[in-house]
Amino acid sequence: MSVAPTLPSHALRRIAALVSAALVAAVVGVGGPLPSAQAAAGITLAKSGPATVLADAAAAYTLTAANPSTNPTAAPEYNVSFRDVLPVGVTYVPGSTTPTSAGEPRVVVDATTGAQTLIWSNVTDLQVGDSFALGFSADTDATVLPVGATFTNTGSVYSSTDPRKIPSFSATGLPVAGSFTESATSAPVTTTVSALTITKSEPSPESELLRGVHDQTTV
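-> structure tokens emitted (219 positions)
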């Protein structure tokens, strides 16, 4: 009876390495390149607004789009367009958009709920490291949002790396797939409807000490 020869340990390690490399090559060949770390966002959006608003009063909001230079593949973003779906009971204040160069938004009203979708199309371009702030105001309806009610709102932004492509939106205000290459949505802003606000002021700016037992300066 013959006995199969035993390979030396260094030969066995070499064979194991070759088999491992072949398996990795097979996986890459079937499924494409191995996944890499996710790239930074091509465009970002931040939204700011008041924590409280008086009943039946207007709330001011700002949408700030940015093209961060921290993105290693950052490129100029063209035809930046903003979209904001207002909650039911909140409506756009005509003429409140700033800067005025952004123009008035297209207002799409939901036939069922009455909610407004605001669309500012092709407002600006963003070079790498640039940002753009869009402001507007929205009225609150006390019959829909009485004192103590809260409402939440988010905004979104769309852009294209192709200067000839402008983000487009459907008749109902939804973004049309394929019309943009980058998009971002802001974190939600929650606002509470209040009955009153308190403002305190001191009309003496000289920073003098009050006479008597007081030890506080005026401000």
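The domain at 44-194 is CATH 2.60.40.740 (Immunoglobulin-like).
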